[in-house]
Amino acid sequence: MTQLSDQAGEVAIQRGNTLASVEAMAAAHNNWGRWGPDDVLGTLNFIDEAKRVEAAQLVRSGQTFSLSQPFNTDGPQKGWRRRTNPVHTMTDTGTDAEFGDQGFPHGIGGADDFIAMPLQCSTQWDGLGHIFDRGNAWNGRRAGQVVTSDGDQVTGIQTAAARIVTRGVLLDVGRALGPELGSDEGELPDGFAITAKHIEATIKKQGASSDIRRGDVVVLRTGQYARTLRQGWGDYAGGSAPGLSFSTAPWLHMSEIAGIATDTWGFEVRPNEFDVAFQPLHQIAIPNLGLYLGEMWNPEELAASCATDGQYDFLLTAAPLPITGAVGSPVNPIAVK
C-alpha cells in the first residue's frame, strides 16, 4: 500500500497554476515506454493469466451483481458536448406480427429494435484515446496521429475487448467516511475531494479483503448515485460531485491498479481543485499513466452485500464493446462473489 503524506497532496495542487501542477505531476508519474513503444493497453498490462486465476478463486457463493446503470431515455445526460440519453426505437413489433405485415411464412413473427446513443452516456469505460495532455496521447504519441475523423487508429477500445477479467475491489468511501461527515446515508457530499489518506482509511476500516494489489480494478463508491435515486438526477451529469483529488495521482500510479471506476459522472472531484481547470486528474491518468477510468457505475447492490458479509473483493468482468476505433464504450460490469 502506498503511503502518501498530506503535504505531498498540498504540493501537487497549486491552485492558481493548473498547468504547472499538471506538468509536474506528469513528469513525476508517467508510464510511457513501460511496456514498449508500441503498447496499446496501458495499465491493462497488469492483468495477466495468473491474475485472472487469482480472481476466479474469489468466487464462493456464485452471487452476481450488475454494476451498470440503466440505458434509457430517462438517464442523466443534458446534451452537454452533444451527449444525449439513449434513444430506443422498435423497427418490428408484436402489432406488426399480429397484422401479418412482416412477410414471414406459417405465422412466425418477431420484434427488432435499435438504439442510438453516445458511447459515454451511461455506465462506461474511458479508453486511452479519450483524453490528451498538451497534444500527447497515451505512450507519448501525438494526439492527431492517434485519433482522427476515422476514430482511434492505435488504442481503440476494441484492443481491450478480452482483457478486463480480474480481481475487483469495492472501496465504499461513502460508508467509511459518511458518518464522520454527518451523512446517515453513507454518502459523501458534492465537492468532497477523496485523498490517498481517505482511500487508506477506507481500506483499513473494511479489512484485508480490500487490500489493493497489482492488476486490480477498484470500484469506488461515493454514494452520489444513491442520492440521485432518491432525489433525481439534478446536475449529476457535469455538476458538482464527490470524487478523487488531483493529489491521488501518485497513489493511482504506484498502486499499479489496472483500472478504477466510480459512481459519478466524472471520476474526479467537481468542482476541480484549481482556480481554472477542467478534469486535470483525467489529464494525468489516461494519457500519462495509461489508466482505464470507469464512470457512472452502479455499485449499490454490491455495496450492500459487501457491508453485510465483509467480503470486498470479487471476480470482475467488465468487457467494453469491441467498437473499432472508439475512445470509450458502454459496459455492463459483473461482480461475482
From TrEMBL:
Alphabetical list of InterPro entries matching this protein: KFase/CYL, KFase_sf
Gene3D superfamilies according to UniProt: Putative cyclase (3.50.30.50)
Pfam families, A to Z: Cyclase
Any one biological process term the GO annotation gives: L-tryptophan catabolic process to kynurenine
Listed GO MF terms: arylformamidase activity
Entry protein name: Cyclase family protein
Species whose genome carries this gene: Arthrobacter caoxuetaonis
